[in-house]
């Protein structure tokens, strides 16, 4: 069970290992795109981990990255085509980011680090946990960005904006890319304050001042 | 009383009183804005000082004065609260307080506001007369809080780029607002470079960018964004200045040794 729950908070791929930032920032302007992206990535990473783990003793070590990428890319293309076929509008809103799952560090990281050395079932649980950890961060960031940037959640108006006769003034910054960095940064800060051992040791120790050294 | 109080903060506060008095004669709300910003900024600083077991200075008053002066008239207080909290916490407090930050927190506050709230003219800045800022110029230069190298570099950059792209905008750039923003935001000693050559280059960069941005927008917004951009480059400019200096010293030592 630790394989499933650890990546949610303590080993979260986005907030602790800082992986997969690019797509996490690009699709979080609204909850709907973030949810679609989360589901797509979770499905791809779980299936890829299972397939690669089942094939792990047959994959030659020298070309393992190429084989892993081929399997991942196949699954990503499948997911992309499914989205284009059954949710065309959503696929238009996500632009290239679903096909970019193929280069997402979380997917390759889990298959390379875990699925290559473990049986299929634990690998899939581990990958599912990481997918859910990614989804958790994506949904949190998207919740803040959509609520304060547009006053809505999943496209349903929660806060009535001034343009519609209400009181709420949308924060335009929330819909721009920098806000995703800021929110993610605050999230990482909060997480590391809460779980102190996640913080790295400082690279440089501050020099003692005279008064502190003498005391 | 902190030993640096007379040298650091008091001069800056005194320098901001003439523009404050001028603005107060135009718009009495500036007093309540100032009080609100001061309470908020000192609150944040006290919180972080408590957590980090550090002391506190009076420089929060300078920041509060600057925000109150530059904010548009009739701005809602909740916007002010959001912007000031953002600027003070993410621009200064998380780095460990004043002197360890690398962007000017007040400039960051206004950049955040300009991006976030389109319903208020955050980039506009007040209409301060030049004469109200001259005491600040004298006080800050004499106490060394606005280095002449930065000011000279800024003037050179501004004049140079203006002459290239829009010679006619030069005269309308020289306003009290530009001078006040230059003195307190751009020439802030904590973030404007640590070497003479670095400061000069930083000033030229900030001035040139200001002239460039002012060609398509209000002057105050141009100074704020030019300052932020230049401040990010200030450590790099310092590094280049140090490399140049040490290469020159090596060269000189070798020449002296070999006669």
From TrEMBL, chain A:
Keyword Phosphoprotein applies: no
Highest taxon, organism lineage: Bacteria
Annotated protein name in UniProt: NADH:ubiquinone reductase (Na(+)-transporting) subunit D
Subcellular location, record wording: Endomembrane system
Membrane spanning stretches: 14-32, 39-59, 65-83, 95-116, 136-161, 173-191
Annotated InterPro entries: NqrD (IPR011292), NqrDE/RnfAE (IPR003667)
UniProt entry keywords in alphabetical sequence: Cell inner membrane, Cell membrane, Ion transport, Membrane, NAD, Nitrogen fixation, Sodium, Sodium transport, Translocase, Transmembrane, Transmembrane helix, Transport, Ubiquinone
Membrane topology: Multi-pass membrane protein
A Pfam family this chain is assigned to: Rnf-Nqr
UniProtKB/TrEMBL annotation, chain B:
Superkingdom of this protein's organism: Bacteria
The entry's keywords: Flavoprotein, FMN, Membrane, Phosphoprotein, Translocase, Transmembrane, Transmembrane helix, Transport
Pfam families to which the protein is assigned, alphabetical: NQR2_RnfD_RnfE (PF03116)
TM stretches of this protein: 33-49, 61-82, 102-118, 130-158, 170-187, 199-216, 222-248
InterPro entries per record: NqrB/RnfD
Protein's UniProt name: RnfABCDGE type electron transport complex subunit D
Origin organism lineage: Bacteria, Pseudomonadati, Pseudomonadota, Alphaproteobacteria, Rhodobacterales
